[in-house]
Design brief:
399 residues, alpha+beta, 2 domains, eight-stranded mixed β-sheet, 15 helices, 10 strands, 15% strand
Length: 399
């Protein structure tokens, strides 16, 4: 596990007009999914899975973008960061992101290239044809290796998420849908150095699939997420959870709502999704304080040998249970570094241990009973009690 990369990463924010491009995101996702499935069936590599997103030039603007050079300059830094000294591509290179919104939903794309060369000339199979007819002019193009959905059909959620971005051409002020959305695309920064497409993290959370594939499988989760935010956990708790953690919590709840009347249903995916939510949230928290932790804060004994749990970006739920429950250096450091530290050192290890014990049979295709999962779900969401997820959301770095 590592903390945010040194320095604020650079990103781009674009708005697409649903009135002029109603199918922009659907067509892009459809192309990525088609290429991802071809990769699986034809044994092609992930480098062949990408789609181009063009920044369409307004017919009312005759002059070039005043900051087009700055946008294109991202590519030089991107390519330099993406390879090691021998020219080999790095999986943990600093990411450049393209944030895309129509004001109701928000997506983030993993940028592999930024260019003003038109890919329709020699790479047309990776361009969504329905969006970019021959007469459509684009200022620049972004090669997207993957796309994640951060907010779905929820304008207040988009507003809150965009506050985390700062507009470099508008005095580094937080991005707002209600002001400063001029001279698109916006060049923005994030102070938290978010890595949306880290390979190791994705491998642990999506079983190696692209995020665009996972999102496609989770239809209907957006409405459940809004319900959890507005009617169950509250906005403050929901905002404090990592977007991926929210996704897994909402997925667990959707499965529960869909099948709670069926005692014969295998409820193990609910356990798996709650466990993944904790893995994401705790890994993100530890990453932000890791430089301030003692060297042995992640050490645990596994089969007679010492293992550093925090050497991995995404430790499993069982390892997290042991390190938060057994590592005295970590437990001594927690009160100095994390808010809600009494809960972290008191209740959290038992919660992680319970999740690990329930997930173990779940991960091996053994059914988990409806009653056991109901008790777990109620304890997490706060049905008849103070929810564990509310406590988890209160755990934040100090200083």
């Amino acid at each position: 596990m590592t903390g945010p990369p040194a320095g604020a990463a650079r990103h781009v924010l674009l708005v697409w007009d649903p009135a002029r491009q109603p199918d922009a995101m659907e067509e892009t996702l459809r192309l990525l999914l088609s290429l991802a499935r071809s990769r699986d069936t034809l044994d092609e590599g992930e480098d062949d899975v990408y789609a181009w997103w063009g920044k369409i030039r307004s017919p009312n603007r005759q002059q070039p973008l005043p900051h087009l050079g700055d946008v294109l300059a991202l590519d030089a830094a991107l390519q330099a960061d993406a390879v090691d000294d021998d020219g080999a591509r790095l999986d943990d290179a600093r990411e450049v992101h393209l944030y895309l919104t129509d004001y109701r939903s928000l997506y983030v794309g993993h940028v592999g290239e930024v260019t003003d060369a038109d890919p329709r000339r020699d790479d047309a199979t990776h361009v969504p044809r329905a969006l970019y007819a021959e007469g459509v002019s684009c200022d620049c193009w972004f090669r997207l290796f993957d796309v994640r959905r951060l907010v779905h059909d929820d304008t207040p959620g988009v507003v809150e998420e965009l506050k985390k971005l700062r507009n470099t051409r508008y005095h580094d002020r937080p991005v707002s849908l209600y002001g400063g959305m001029v001279e698109l695309p916006l060049l923005v920064t994030r102070e938290d150095g978010a890595r949306w497409f880290d390979h190791a993290t994705r491998a642990g959370l999506t079983d190696g699939h692209l995020w665009v594939e996972l999102d496609a499988e989770l239809s209907g989760v957006g409405a459940v997420a809004a319900s959890l935010r507005d009617d169950v956990l509250g906005e403050a708790t929901w905002r404090a959870l990592d977007p991926a953690a929210r996704l897994f919590v909402a997925t667990a709840e959707k499965i529960h709502r869909d099948h709670r009347a069926d005692p014969a249903f295998d409820f193990s995916p609910i356990v798996v999704n709650f466990a993944k939510a904790y893995e994401v949230q705790l890994s993100q928290l530890v990453g932000r304080i890791q430089r301030r932790l003692p060297r042995d804060a992640g050490h645990v004994n596994v089969d007679g040998r010492t293992v550093d749990a925090f050497a991995e970006r995404m430790p499993g739920i069982g390892v997290l249970a042991r390190v938060f429950g057994e590592n005295h250096s970590l437990r001594a450091a927690v009160p100095k570094l994390l808010g809600n530290h009494a809960w972290v050192n008191g209740s959290l290890p038992a919660i992680l241990k319970e999740l690990a014990a329930m997930r173990n049979p779940a991960a091996h295709s053994e059914a988990v009973s409806r009653d056991a999962v109901r008790r777990l779900r109620d304890a997490q969401l706060g049905v008849g009690c103070l929810g564990a997820l509310v406590e988890l959301a209160r755990v934040r770095p100090l200083g």
